[in-house]
Amino acid sequence: MRLDLVPRPGRAPLAALLAPALAFLASVLLGGVAVALLGVSPAAAFAAYFIAPLSELWSLQEIAVKAAPLALIATGLAFCYRANLWNIGAEGQFVVGGLAGGCVALATQGSAGFTFWILPTMLVAGTLAGIAYAMIPAVLKVRLGVSEILTSLMLVYVAELLLDYMARGPLRDPAGYNFPQSVPFDAAARLPYLMEGETLHAGVLIAFASVVLATIVLGRTLFGFEVRVVGASPRAARFAGFSEARLTLAAFAVSGGAAGLAGIAEVAGQIGQLQPTISPGYGFTAIIVAFLGRLSPPGILVAALVIALTTIGGEGAQIDLRLPLDLTRAFQGVLLAFVLGADVLTRFTVRLVPGGAR
Amino acid sequence: MTIAATEPMPAPGDPRPLFGAYGIVKRFGAFTANDRIDLEIRAGEIHALLGENGAGKSTLMKILYGLLEPTAGVVTHRGEVVRLRNPEAARRLGIGMVFQHFSLCANLTVAENIALVMGKGLGRRALADRIAALGRTYGLHLDLDRPVWSLSAGERQRIEIVRCLLQDPKLVILDEPTSVLTPGEAEKLFTVLERLRDEGRALLYISHRLDEVRRLCARATILRGGRVVGACDPRAESAGSLAALMVGAPVRALTREAAPARSAPAGPERLRLDRLSLPAPGLHATGLRDISFSVRGGEILGIAGIAGNGQSELFAALSGEARAPEAGAVRIDGTPAGRLDINARRRLGAVFVPEERNGHAAAPGLSLSENVVLSRYATASLTRFGLVRRGAARALAARVIAAFDVRKAGPDPAAGTLSGGNLQKFVVGREILGEPGVLVVDQPTWGVDAAAAARIRQALIDLAARGSAILMISQDLDELFAIAGSIAVLQAGTLSRAVARAETTREAVGLLMGGSGGPPPGGHTGTPAGRSREGDSHAT
User: Fold this and answer.
1) Does A347 touch chain B (CB under 8 A)?
2) Which end of chain B is more exposed for a tag (fewer CB within 10 A), N or C?
3) Is the Cβ pair A222, B387 closer than 8 Å?
4) Do the chains contact at A6 and B28, CB–CB below 8 Å?
5) Contacts of B360 in chain A (CB under 8 A)
């Protein structure tokens, strides 16, 4: 027996939209089976995962606040992955962006008078730091042919340890009872909340604006065209006069900048000070989000919201139903596999060929 | 007779055919590639399968080789119905295949690629001996330890042929086998094929080269639009009448009036190469040595040569995908361009059509309008403030499609969905519509059906007549002698002097292609009379 994948002549637009929805449904059903095997009512689990988080204002805000960095990072990564460049180090670029922007906040601590420039400077500093950090694997790849997968991944640990050292050492709050964290930022160094007394902050708007901008850049500009051609047909890209080295640097700059911006937005929005750890793994989860959204910015926005929903729902399910948090991760993995599988099925029909050994 | 016949119909008076295919139908979705095809192949014959691109030849061959299963219909072997589930089953029945598009693993060596299909039980040494013996018999020499990625198309095809012959097949299917061979090599191959036939084997021979079919084959089956439209004895037909059967209408003859005059044209020099030397870009690529030529407006200079003698490298040096060491080595309309990139050269009025349609001239996954942007964004004002003007790109694509009769499905389909001939018309048309001063084209009609090839060649002739200079790299002597005003031969990275078409012969060019003309082009003897003078004013 062997399986043949026969390309479909065309791809129905309806199927392209329907496939991820069906994949989601299939993942939910499979998750329900797993939940039932754990001795919990699937209906209760479904309510905890998908209904409860959507039914209260605070959890809706939590979803948005969690989805924002995922969407922002994944949108940047889409530029790399579309061009066949494998930046695995967004987590490190995120951390470095948060650290650099946080340093600006701490350096300007207590400024009086005009302070409106502080927050924009922090955001710019975070973005630039992310770009600079992403340039290390990019330049190594362009100049020396070093695999960007390894360098970008290893630099994640360098960034994490650097932040850890800074938060415990030079940047520690002297009046903080030896807690490994900086002084809380001034209000001028915080992203404003969108609603009085709530948790939704302006970082969500930054992420949304970035997704819109990326949609235009990727779909309408010559640069976006270049990204797509280099990834799909490198030789045709050279024929078009696009430079692979230049594009490598540019795509890493975009993804590093987006991750750095997400980092400082997280520090200036959600956290409000520097800590040894500022990310629950956003930079890695964003890789899943990028592929779940099929490397298109609008798709990524949806994927980020779904992943955030299951994360928040998973926390609720852990508290209410004592379901393990690992179940959430397993579900996210199953969802990714199903979405990618459904994607294949919209482009190919599967045919079972009996007998053939080949 | 739609689906049919579980009992094969015996051919009256004849022994049962070695292989038969009856009522073969193959559908891909809504598209019917083969529609009730009957074909009988007898032992000891070379049977031609003729048809345009998209006529269904490849599908039928793949069915006979077990790569595809028919939607309906049966294949028989000596009258018995057989089921070819996979190529291994086909090989066990003695069917061998030489593909046009090579099925080789680029990372493996020649020996490994051959061992891959030979199965177990044959040692490396024994295999090498058998390959060497075949190489001696048929003149198919192979360097067994070279990785395939480093080989030219011609060398890769040699592996395919040897690989097939090693299996001692009863039926050999050959898909355009001579497309990368010199006339001399092709002649050698014909001897091989005739020997195989005389040994009682059957051969199914697919070729666009009608002269070869007439030379080799006693029977021909002609396909058009997935159906059998005729059978004939090609020896009793002319190349023209065969072509007419294939396309269903007489192929438009090239209007020679428009072809450049045989004597030196009067136009100004538009493209010039001056002692260009480039080191080989890869371990097994060909370096260019001291290449000089000049092409004037109104002239078509043909560069003949066998694959792998520096054609790709010469094309890259002309297009700017590879830079020359000195700016003056390449001149476009007098401007030193050797150090310029491809778009700077395009702005000087040059355009380029590479050999490989899919993945070089066009990105198969992108739509036709996006593929217009690919090569024209620098010169056709298709961008504004960094944004792609999609309306303008679609309009330009529509002009190309209309002017070159590009057949396609849907308003703006992906380039990869077009047939070879239609995509080639599209990429040639895309460049010609910009009214370039200089056109450099590599293999303008490789693997393209007769009607599309005629259209492309006519477009080149017309462009030259409007005053453009055309450099055409081609391995097809018919093509070179049909439209080039003068011809030079690229062999092992050096270029012979350009000779006016009227003053040379196929044999002379063929000898130079094989390297037997010797580096000084005056040196070859034994060429037929009628070519008394070497070279002319085009050569520099």
Assistant:
1) no
2) N
3) yes
4) yes
5) 233, 235-236, 239
Contacts of A233 in chain B (CB under 8 A): 359-360, 362-366
Question: Which residue in A233, A347, A351, A358 has the most chain B C-beta atoms within 10 A of its own C-beta, making it the best mutation to test that interface?
Answer: A233
Closest alpha carbon within chain B to A358: B86
Q: Tell me whether residues A221 and B321 touch, CB distance under 8 A.
A: no
Residue identified by tokens 């997400």 is A262
Q: For residue B518, how many other CB atoms are within 10 A of its CB?
A: 14
Residue B20, beta-bridge partner list: B40, B76
Query: CA of B158: how far to CAs of A110, B151, B180, B350, in Å?
Result: 78, 10, 10, 35
For residues B432 and B439, is the Cβ–Cβ distance under 8 A? yes
Q: What is the CATH number of the domain that holds A209?
A: 1.10.3470
- Mean pLDDT is highest, among A231-235, B40-44, B66-70, B350-354, for B350-354
**Residues B450-473, buried b or exposed e (16+ Cβ, 10 A)?**
bbbbbbbbbbbbebbeebbbbbbb
Among chain A residues, CA nearest to B374? A240
Q: How far is B88 from chain A (nearest CA, A)?
A: 8
Q: What is the pLDDT of residue B146?
A: 87
C-beta of residue A339 within 8 angstroms of C-beta of residue A345: no
Say yes or no for a CB contact (<8 Å) between B374 and A223.
no
Tell whether B341 lies on the interface with A, counting CB pairs under 8 A. Answer: yes
Nearest Cα to Cα of residue B432 among B346, B527, B351, B329: B351
Q: For residue B340, give the chain A residue with the closest CA.
A: A241
Counted across chains A and B, CB pairs separated by less than 8 A come out at 81
How many angstroms away from the CA of A352 is the closest CA of chain B? Answer: 12
Specify the range with the lowest mean pLDDT, choosing from A154-163, A260-269, A347-356, B47-56. A347-356
CA distance B374 to chain A (A): 5
Residues of A in contact with B342 (CB under 8 A): 238-241
A1: nearest CA in chain B? B85
Q: What domains can you pick out in chain B, each with its CATH number?
A: 19-247 (3.40.50.300), 256-349+436-523 (3.40.50.300)
pLDDT of residue B208: 66
Helix (H) or strand (E) holding A211: helix A203-220
Burial class from Cβ neighbours inside 10 Å (0-12, 13-18, 19+) for residue B200 reads exposed
**Cα of B373 to nearest chain A Cα, Å:** 8
Per the structure, the count of domains in chain A is 1
| H or E, element range at A45 | helix A42-46
Question: What integer best gives the mean pLDDT of chain B?
Answer: 82
Distance from CA of A239 to the nearest CA of B (A): 7
Of A20-24, A225-229, B270-274, the poorest mean pLDDT is in A20-24
Angstrom distance (rounded) from CA A226 to CA A212: 19
Name the residue with higher pLDDT: B446 or B427. B427
The conformational region for residue B343 under phi > 0 = left, psi -120 to 50 = alpha, else beta, is alpha
Q: What is the reported pTM?
A: 0.73
CB distance B365–A232 less than 8 Å?
yes
Whether residue B516 is predicted with pLDDT greater than 60 in this model: the reply is no
Cβ contact B234:B258 at 8 Å: no
The mean-pLDDT minimum among A316-320, B105-109, B205-209, B253-257 falls in B253-257
Distance from C-alpha of A79 to C-alpha of A69, rounded to nearest angstrom: 16
Dihedral, CA atoms, A207, A13, A289, A298, nearest 10 degrees? 0
How many helices (DSSP H) and strands (DSSP E) are in chain B? 16, 23
Structural domain containing residue A292: 39-109+116-323
Q: Return the CA Rg of chain A.
A: 22
**Who's near A117: CB < 8 A, 6+ residues apart?**
none
Does B3 touch chain A if contact means CB atoms closer than 8 Å? no
